[in-house]
Amino acid sequence: MSAPATNITPLSNKPKFCETSVHGRVEDVQRYEGIYRTRVICPAVDEFSSPQKLLIRSKTRLGSKDELITISCRLGGYQRKPYRVTDKDTGEQTNVTPVDMTLDQIE
User: Residue 71 belongs to a domain with what CATH number?
Assistant: First the structure.
């Protein structure tokens, strides 16, 4: 028989849709037109994976360079201009519509 689960999160603490938490080290901070853009490098999942780099927008400074932070973010995104690509093997042309994801600090 298996042991009871001890790390169950209560439903009241469950994040809302399109919200997440980010933990990592501040790599760079830039401010442009009143908005801070903080580049964060997150820990790698395992020893064979590369660490992920994220850009988080915020109204206030999230931290200094090399500081570890953990913050809540709202996921967003926008569609960019579509373009056509040709498959080298088949010659088939298709439209590709890129989507850029954004992360904004939840105030």
Answer: 2.40.50.140
